[in-house]
Amino acid sequence: xxxxxxxxxxxxxxxxxxxxxxxxxxxxxxxxxxxxxxxxxxxxxxxxxxxxxxxxxxxxxxxxxxxxxxxxxxxxxxxxxxxxxxxxxxxxxxxxxxxxxxxxxxxxxxxxxxxxxxxxxxxxxxxxxxxxxxxxxxxxxxxxxxxxxxxxxxxxxxxxxxxxxxxxxxxxxxxxxxxxxxxx
Length: 184
What we know:
Layout: H1 4-12, H2 16-58, H3 79-93, H4 97-126, H5 132-182
Helix pairs in contact: 2-4, 2-5, 3-5, 4-5
């Protein structure tokens, strides 16, 4: 268990570069959660509307124009036009996935880069003091950046998969709506 005094000790002995790496990774961490919550909220409401619209169409309660579906604005119910609407919906549904991919893939490297720089600074500053009791704590402090990078990457990758799955569910419902509307 890490206590507050060890965190304060780590921060007091850190260099400006370590602060930059930790701030960068903290920003990534916050952005990952912001994307997750905003996208899940938006997509849950949208998915609910599309499911209701599909049910209304299947039970002949309403025409597509009377529902809350994204397809309701289509004046032309041709297959090509509906596929275009589906493509627009796919683009809207997958907003944020690129950023989550970037965060998930670069966070470990940013953390590792911070660790390498910290270790280089540690060895560069040792000079005549090459005792293991001096080197070990500095290297341990340097590894915090790598750990934090991995800590940021794991949720970002998980959130990417969650949102991707939700987008898949939404597109499956839209595809079902299109199939019902086309009536080959």
